[in-house]
Amino acid sequence: MNKDLAGKTDARDILARVQALIGRELLESEAIFTEELTSRHPYVRDVLHHMNSYRGKRLRPMLLLLAGAAVGEVEHSHKVLAAVVEMIHTATLVHDDVLDEAQIRRHVATVNSRYNNETSVLLGDYLFTHAFHLASSLESTLACRLIGRATNLVCEGELAQIHERGNIELTEETYLEIIEGKTAELCAICCYLGAHFSGAPEQVSSAFDSYGRSLGIAFQIADDLLDVWGDEEQTGKSLGSDFEKQKLTLP
Q1: CA distances from residue 187 to 59, 169, 223 in whole angstroms, order as listed
Q2: Residue 131, exposed/middle/buried by CB under 10 A (0-12, 13-18, 19+)?
C-alpha cells in the first residue's frame, strides 16, 4: 500500500475508534460550542459560520473527553470544558493566520483572507471571551485558573517565537520551550482537567498532564516538519510561512 495512503488509513482508523468511545459526548460538546457562539449580528454570524467550515479534528476536546472516560464517567462538566478548550484553540488559529499571513486552512480561505485582519483579530478576541464566559458557568476556580494560565503560556510561547525570529543560533532547548508553551500546554491541561473532573487522584491527573504535554510537543514538531516538506494539496493549508517569517524550527 502507498505510504501516504497507509498513513491516512491509519489516521482514519484511529479517529473511528475514538468516535466509538466518545462520539456522542463529542457531539454534545459541539452543541454547547455552537450554542455559546450565537450572535444577533448578521456579520458576526457569517464570520462564525465561515470559521466553522474549516475547524479541525477536535483533537483537544477529544483528549479531554478521553481522559475523563479513561478515569471514570464523562459528565456535563467535561463537555463544557471540551467546548472551552476548542474555543481557545480556534482563537489561537485565527490569530496565527494573521501573524503568518496564511491564505488557506483545510482547503478553505482563512478568516483574514476572506474578510480582513481586523475581523480576524476581533474574532479571536470574541472566542477567548466566550471561552472564559463558558468556563465560569462551571463555578470551578481551579478550571478557570488552569485554563487562564494555559492561555497565558500559549501567548508567551508565540511572543517568544516572534522575539527569536531570525536567530540562527536558536538552541533546541529554547525551541522546545517555545512549543511547549504555544502548543503543548493546552494539550496538557486538556488531559489534566479530563482526569481531574472524573475524580482522579492528583498523581493520576498529573500523569495525564505529562502525557498531554509530550503529545503536544510531538504534534508541533510534526507540524513544523509539514511546514517545510509538506504538500499544500494534502495538508490543505498554507505552508512555508515559518521560513518566510524567519521562524527557526527543529527541522
Answers
A1: 9, 28, 15
A2: buried
Sequence ranges of the domains in the chain: 3-244
Helix, strand, coil percentages, rounded to 5, for the chain: 75, 0, 20
Instruction: List phi, psi (to 5°) of 109.
Output: -60, 135
Instruction: Write down the residue that cell numbers 466553522 correspond to.
Output: 52
Instruction: Enumerate residues 6+ apart whose C-beta is below 8 A from 49.
Output: none
Give 171-216 pLDDT, tens digit per residue: 989 999 999 999 999 999 999 999 999 999 999 999 999 999 999 9
Residues paired with residue 108 on neighbouring β-strands, in sequence order: 105
Confidence of residue 165 (pLDDT cuts 50, 70, 90): confident
The CATH number that domain 3-244 falls under is 1.10.600.10
Handedness of CA 75, 26, 16, 59 (dihedral sign): negative
Distance, in Å, from the CA atom of 62 to the CA atom of 41, rounded to the nearest integer, reads 31
Q: Residue 235 and residue 7: Cα distance in Å, rounded?
A: 13
The C-alpha cell at 13 is 482508523
Handedness of CA 33, 135, 19, 154 (dihedral sign): positive
Q: What b-and-e string marks burial along 190-215, b requiring 16 or more CB atoms within 10 Å of the CB?
A: bbbbbbbbbebeeebbbebbebbbeb
How far apart are alpha carbons 108 and 191 in whole angstroms? 30
Each residue of 82-107: pLDDT tens digit? 999 999 999 999 999 998 888 888 88
